[in-house]
């Protein structure tokens, strides 16, 4: 990328904290498939004179580890990326989906996946509520 990419992003695209722009070219090779090439761009507030390419790579991999682990599941099971909420509703939605995912993990017994837990919970909501401590009203 050009030497002044961060300056362009900072000033022309109005991203005030941008100090570096990173281009990452990735090639994935799976048996029996053609290699898949992908280019991703990252912006960072880190000073490129003080952070090595190897350190940038570690930060990027760390970000995707978190993204793939928690956010990936929240998006897959609760469609988190498809929601367009205001700031207050967006925060509430994030908390609720995190709670739902945590509860699903706590309830994992005979089911193998979060999807199976969700399907069973939807099919038998009272049974699910009782597992979570809900006591049925006997009146």
Give a structural overview.
- The chain has two domains: 1-27 and 35-51, no CATH class; 66-127, no CATH class.
- Helix content is 51%, strand content 13%.
- The chain is built from five helices and two strands; from the N terminus they run αββαααα.
- A two-stranded antiparallel ribbon has the order 1-2.
- Strand 1 (20-28) and strand 2 form a beta hairpin.
- The termini are far apart.
- 4% of the residues are buried.
What's the topology here?
Elements: H1 5-11, E1 20-28, E2 36-44, H2 53-78, H3 87-107, H4 114-123, H5 125-131
Antiparallel strand pairs: 1-2
Helix pairs in contact: 4-5
List keywords for this structure.
single chain; 139 residues; alpha+beta; 2 domains; two-stranded antiparallel ribbon; 5 helices; 2 strands; 51% helix; elongated
Summarize this entry quickly.
By secondary structure, the chain is α+β, with helices and mostly antiparallel strands. The protein contains five helices and two strands, in the order αββαααα.
Order of helices and strands: HEEHHHH
Helical amount among residues, as a percent range? 40-55%
Radius of gyration: 22 Å
- The helix tally amounts to 5
Write down the oligomeric state: single chain
Overall average residue pLDDT:
80
Tell the overall outline: elongated
């Amino acid at each position: 990328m050009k030497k002044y990419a961060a300056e362009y992003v900072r000033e022309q695209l109005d991203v005030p904290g941008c100090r570096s722009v990173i281009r990452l070219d990735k090639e994935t090779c799976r048996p029996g498939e053609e290699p898949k090439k992908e280019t991703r761009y990252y912006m960072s507030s880190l000073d490129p004179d003080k952070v090595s390419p190897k350190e940038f790579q570690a930060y990027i991999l760390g970000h995707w580890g978190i993204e793939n682990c928690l956010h990936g599941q929240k998006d897959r099971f609760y469609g988190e990326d498809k929601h367009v909420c205001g700031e207050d509703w967006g925060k509430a939605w994030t908390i609720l989906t995190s709670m739902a995912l945590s509860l699903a993990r706590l309830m994992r017994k005979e089911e193998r996946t979060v999807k199976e837990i969700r399907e069973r919970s939807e099919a038998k909501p009272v049974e699910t509520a009782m597992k979570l401590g809900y006591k049925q009203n006997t009146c």
